[in-house]
Structure prediction request, 916 residues.
Amino acid sequence: MDGIIRITVVGDGNTGKTCMLYAYKDKKYNDHHSSTVFDSYSMSIEIDGKPRRMILTDTAGQEEYDRIRILAYKECDVFVLCYSVDCRISFLNVRNKWARELMKIKPNCRIILAATKSDLRKIYNGCVSTSEGLRLKKEIRANDFVECSSKLLLNVDIVFQKAVIAAIHPHFVKKTKPKKEECAIL
Amino acid sequence: METVTLPSGQQLVVPKIVNDLCSFIITKIDTEGLFRKGGSKSRQNEIRLSLDAGCYLGEEHHEVDVASVLKTFFRELPEPLIPFSFHELFLRCMLLSEHQIEAVLLSCLLIPMEHLNTLAYFMQFLFRVSEYSPFNKMDAYNLAVVMGPSLLPAEEKLPHNPTQRLTKTCELFKLLIENAANIGVLTESIIERIAITSSMSSLNVDDEANVKKKKKRRSGSLTRMLNGLKKIVSSKTEEVVQEFPPDLLLTPCITRSAKKRKIESAGISNKKRRQIINSLPQQAILNTPYTPVSKNPDAIKKPTPETCEKTKEKKVLWSKSKAKVEEGSSKTAIQRRWSAVSSVAAFRRKKTRNSCAASLTHQKPKILEKDPQIDNRINDLSEELTKHKEPETENYVRISKVEYEEIKNRVSAIERRISIELENAEPEASATCDDGVKDVEMAYEQTLVQTEPLSPTTDQLAKRLSRELKIRRSNEPKVFRSPSARKIGSLRRRSRERDQPTTAEEPPKTRSNSFHGNNSPSVVANSMTSNSSTVSWKSAQGFFNATPMSNPGVTENCRASLAKLRSQNAGMVLAKAKLFDNLVDSECSSNKSGESNCVSSQTRSTKIGAPRVLDKNSRIQSLKMEERRKKAISPRKRNCNKSPQIRMQRISVKAPPPQEYNMDRTILRDCNRRGSEPTTSPKCVTPRNAPQIKRTLNPKSPRRICRTPVSEAKQTPLKVIATTRNTHHY
Prediction:
C-alpha cells in the first residue's frame, strides 16, 4: 500500500453523490444540478498524527457509464454506496444492482452504506426509514451505515471518517462465508 | 418508421418507438431528474415487454422508466445513432478551437439518412426538455451527459483516454442539443455553391417525376449506367432532365435555403424523397444529405458523366463476390421498401421471362428517342439482370456466378460500344458538367479544409471517411479525364479484369461452361439436340439477338469479344483435357489420348458455331428450355454435373472409331481458320457429336450422378477439391 486512501462514491443517478463530496470537501452545500461523468479529488487528511493522501472518486450513476465506472473500481479501498431516502427505487437498486456489481468486480471490498438527503424525510412521506437502511446494510454486508444530509451538512464528515477507518483497519476485512462445495459430478 | 411533422415545419421519418416514447415523456416533461434517474429495472423490463407486444404506454408507467427505456433503446441499437465510423470525426470536430458548431453540423450531414432524421428529431426533443430545466433540472449539459454514452458509445476496446473522450462526447451533445434546429440543415455558403452549380440546369418537374417513377424498377448498376446515358443523350438533344445525383458523394448537400423551406413545405414529402433516393443507385446511402422539407429545385446537382463513370469503374473494380453480395442486398432493400410496387414489378418481370424477350416492356422515357435501340437492349439486359440478381426470391432463377460474369462482360461490351457511339456527344456534356463537378468538389474540399487543422491525422481520417463513403478525393487523377482517356481506362480495366481471375476463378468458369456445352443434351430429354447445346452462352446472346430492334454494329462488336472469350474457354478446355490425359494414360493408348484433345476442341467449334446460325424461333425455344433447366438444376447440382463431363470425355475417347474424329478435326481446322466468322454450322458438327454423348450419358442421369459423388471423388480427386471450393461461391 502506498499510503493513499482511495474512496469511490457510487450509487444511482441523482442521489446526491457529487453534492455529498462537495459538502465534505468544501464544507458547504452546492446547489447545482449537473450530472457527473467522472471526477476525482485529491485531498490530504491527518490520521494518527500522520498526513495521508486521500483520493475521492466521483462516478456517474447512469448505466450508460457502467464501463467507465468500472475503471474506478480497480484501485479502490472503500466504496461509499449511496441511496437517497426520498427515492425508493434508488434504495432498491442498492440491493439489485450496486451490491451485485461491487461484489462481482471486487468480491472483498469494503462498503459504507450512505443514505443521503435525510433532510427530505420531513417533507415527503414514504421515505426509506432508518430501520430499512440497517436491514439493507446487513443484507449487503456493508461495513457501516450512515444517514446524512448534504444540504444541512449533517453526518457527511462521519461518512468519510468511517470510510477511512474501514480502509486503514485490517480487521474490517469482511468474513466471507465458505461456499458450499459443488457436486463434482454435476 | 413513421413521419413526424415538427413544430418548425420539418418533416422527419423516425422510428415509431422513438416517437411514441418521446411523446409520452413530453406529457411529463417537468419531472425532476428526467433521463437522469435510473428507474426500476424490473418495471423497465415490463415496459419493454409490453412495447414489444405492441401495447401502448399508459398512465401506470412512470416517466423515468420510460425515459430509461428510451435510453436503453438507443444504447442497444446494433449501430449507434451516430455510427461507429463517424465517432472519430465528431470527436475531432470537438477539438476545434473555432467553428466547432459548423463543423459538427456539417458532419451531421454525412451520417446515414435514417440516423440523421432520428438524431434531428431526438435532439429537438431534448432541446424541448432542456427548456423546462427550471422544473426538471435537466439542462442541455445534463442531458448531454446522460444521453451521450447511449448515442455515441465507446467501442468495445476501451479508448486510450476514456475520460477525455467522454467529456468531449458530452460537449458534443450539448452542442447538438443547443443547435438542434440546425441539424441536417445546410449552411448558406454551401447552398450558394450548389446554386451556382445547378443554375445551368433548368427545371422540369414533370420529367423529373416521370424519370423517378420509371427508375424504381431498375437494378442499381444499370440505373447508374442509364443515368449517365440519359445525361449524355439528353444534353445532346437539348432536353434537360432533372435528376438526383446518382452518386451523392461529391456533395453532402442537396438543399434548400431556410426561407424556401417554409414556403415549399407543401412540396414533396421527405418520405417520398427518401423512397426515391432509395430507388437510386447505392440506395442513397451513407451520405445522403438530409433535406427536411422539399428540396430547392435550383439546388439539385446535375449528374455528370464523370460521376457515373467513376461509380461504374469502382463497381467493376470491386471483388466480384462482394459486388454480387452488394447487388443482392441492395436489391432486397429496394424490394422491401417497394413492397407494393415490387409485387407488380415482380409479376411483370416474371411474365417477361416466360414470354422470353419477345414481349419486352419499353419503359424508357421519351427523352431517349435518340438511341432507342441501345436503350431497348439495355432494358432487356436490365430485365435479365434483375431476374438473375435475386437468388433469394423463389420466383427467380438462381444464376451461377459464371453466368453472372458473362452477363456482366456483355454489358461492359455494350457499354463500350455505346461510349463509342456517343463520343461525339460527350465533349459537350463533359464540358458543361466539368464545371459543376469542380464546384462540388470545391465545396467538399472546403469541408476538408475546415476539418484539416484538427490534427495531423485528419488527412488519414478524411481518407478513411472517403473510403467509407466512397468519395473520390479531388486530387485523384481520374477526375478530369477526357472521354478518350476514360475509354482507355475502361479498356485497361477490362483487360485487367480478364487477366485477373486466371488463377482462382477461371477454372471453375470454363469447366462449367464446357460442361453446359457438352452435357446439356442429356439433361434436356431428347428433342433439343444441337440447339440447346450452348446453354450458358445463349441466354444472353439470345436475348440480344431476339431484340426486335437490334443494332448490327453492337452485335458484331459483341461477337468479337465473345469469340475471344470463347477461344479462351476453349484454351482452358484444352488445358484441362491435357490434365485429364495424365489420368487416362494408364487406361488408354497414347494416340487415343491425343484424340481427347480433339474431342475437347470439338466442343469449342460447337460453341463458336452454335448460336449464330440459330433462327429466331429456335432461339426462343432454346431459351425457354434453358429457363426450365435453370429452374430444375440448382447450382449444387451443376457442380456435381461437372464430373459427368469428365466421364463422358473418358468414354468417348475409348468408344468412337478414329475415322470420325479425323473428319471432325478437319472441320475444326476450318473453324480455327475462319475465326469468328459464323459460317460453321453447328448442325454439321454437333449432330455427329450428339448421339455419342447421348449414348454415353443416358444410363447416368444427372440426378443419379448427384447421388454418387463419392465414386467420382475417388476417380478425380483434384476436380472434387475444386468443386467443393466452388460451392462456396454460390
The radius of gyration of chain A is 17 Å. The beta strands of chain A are 5-11, 38-47, 50-59, 78-84, 110-116, 144-147. Chain A has a mean pLDDT of 83.
